[in-house]
């Protein structure tokens, strides 16, 4: 029998923003925790839909057609091929559900977030 997955523990252990950690798999779908701050780059996934379930914080999914704002408990599906750019003013924690891991340079992950990096401070 499987043990329950404590999402908060997995999120606390993440050292990189916009990276994903697979915590479960069922029926061909991966369940991946991630956290974000700042934004990714604009990108699209040509081979899969991307489903976000926001757990904590606020997350805005920028779409060319307009922004979608998510609050804890909200679920949003970005259809395959739709260009998007997730943005979080403060840390947002979420679950991504899909067939594969998409957190890489092609998936919009910003360069500063690798190796536990911190978001650059913008100056006016």
Automatic annotation (TrEMBL):
Residues 30-97 form the Cupin type-2 domain. Keywords: Dioxygenase, Oxidoreductase. The keyword Oxidoreductase applies. GO terms for molecular function: dioxygenase activity. The keyword Transferase does not apply. Residues 101-124 are annotated as: Disordered. It comes from the Bacteria. Residues 115-124 have a biased composition (Polar residues). This is Quercetin dioxygenase-like cupin family protein. The lineage of its organism: Bacteria, Bacillati, Actinomycetota, Actinomycetes, Pseudonocardiales.
